[in-house]
Specification:
Blueprint lengths: L3 H13 L10 E3 L16 E3 L2 E3 L3 E3 L7 H17 L2 E6 L1 H5 L16 E7 L4 H11 L4 E4 L2 H6 L9 H12 L4 E4 L7 H9 L4 E3 L8 H7 L14 H7 L8 E5 L5 H9 L4 E4 L1 H9 L2 H21 L5 H4 L4 E3 L1 H9 L2
Parallel strand pairs: 4-11, 5-6, 6-7, 7-8, 8-9, 9-10, 10-11
Antiparallel strand pairs: 1-12, 2-3
Helix pairs in contact: 1-8, 2-12, 10-12
Length: about 325
């Protein structure tokens, strides 16, 4: 059974985890020496989940359901509103068990905050309906975390209902849905099946950032050999290239800076989510300092796109690139 302490465990071990293999380091973009555009002409806008967004990156779901989680959410919301970024709260499940929990209600007093929330696919339609009624999010992010649940002593053990829940969400909820992995990557068969159930937008959230297998093993599990389970973020994006114009792909998992963001956008992502990177920032800097860093990211995205001679995200999808190492080997084996 979920406890508030588990939420704090997740924050603790996410911050302690040392970075490992990151597929973004095995992709190189091809520079253009004769640019077509002035820097001021570069357009960062994107579109997914039924609306336009000014910037192609967002603060992805992390936490909530504890005092520490609430403090982090308040700071993230302050950054998001100031920078005009989308902010997705962590799983709303804890608030369903404790309706007085304030850690998710960060929109109070922030009329300009672009807010979405998250819930696990193990929850039935009524739970998702309650989350939407409570927070009025711009969309509902539905996470699938199979390996995490299997490694948690208190995790789910019954999964047959997940497909029916997804069908119910798709047919009965009157707002956009995003199906999200939690760092294990998403394969083509998953995307195709979920699409057949009515889902159009996917956050493939691959390996390379926070590992919930590692976190659950730190919480007392003894299956460290599964810490690196799953497919990397760019490997998942590469596998999904044939579908990139048929569904909306979002990328998260190991995104550290604007160059990583652009690499994901080149592979067809509509936008890029940041979790661990933002968690590190708000843990170690004031909100004002984080706002300055994020504003700098916007400027850096402009200059990288200018160096690639791309005016907008659509043109980025035609940028040539090189793959190396494990990423190249994986791409050659799984088409």
């Amino acid at each position: 059974m979920m406890s508030q302490n588990r939420k704090d465990d997740h924050i603790k071990y996410a911050l302690e985890q040392r970075p490992g293999y990151n597929s973004f380091d095995e992709m190189e973009l091809v520079h253009r020496s004769l640019p077509k555009y002035d820097l001021a002409e570069i357009d960062l806008s994107t579109h997914f989940a039924g609306r336009d967004w000014e910037f192609p990156f967002y603060i992805n779901a992390m936490t909530g359901g504890s005092q520490k989680g609430g403090q982090i959410n308040e700071k993230l919301a302050q950054v998001a509103e100031s920078c005009g970024l989308l902010f997705v709260t962590g799983s709303y499940s804890a608030a369903l068990k404790n309706p007085s929990d304030p850690s998710y209600r960060v929109a109070t007093g922030r009329p300009n905050l672009l807010l979405a929330t998250n819930i696990g696919l193990d929850k039935p339609f009524q739970a998702a309906q309650q989350a939407v009624a409570d927070l009025h999010p711009l969309f509902l992010q539905v996470h699938v975390n199979l390996m995490q649940e299997l490694l948690m002593p208190e995790g789910e053990r019954e999964f047959r209902s997940w497909r029916q829940h997804l069908t119910d969400y798709s047919q009965r909820l009157d707002l956009p849905l995003i199906l999200k992995e939690v760092g294990f990557g998403m394969d083509r068969s998953t995307v195709e099946e979920a699409r057949s159930l009515g889902i159009q937008t996917f956050d493939i959230s691959g390996r390379g950032g926070t590992s919930f297998a590692y976190i659950e093993n730190q919480r007392g599990g003894n299956r460290d050999y599964l810490n690196d389970w799953g497919q990397s973020t760019l490997q998942s994006l590469l596998v999904l290239q044939p579908l990139r114009d048929e569904v909306e792909l979002l990328a998260s998992g190991g995104v550290r800076h604007p160059l990583d963001m652009v690499k994901a956008l080149v592979l067809g992502a509509k936008a890029v989510g940041l979790s661990r990177t933002m968690l590190d920032l708000v843990e170690n800097h004031s909100a004002e300092e984080v706002i300055d860093i994020v504003e700098g990211w916007k400027s850096d995205l402009h200059l990288i796109m200018c160096a690639l001679s791309c005016r907008n995200l659509q043109e980025l999808k035609s940028v040539p690139y090189l793959l190396y190492g494990r990423l190249k080997e994986a791409h050659e084996q799984i088409k």
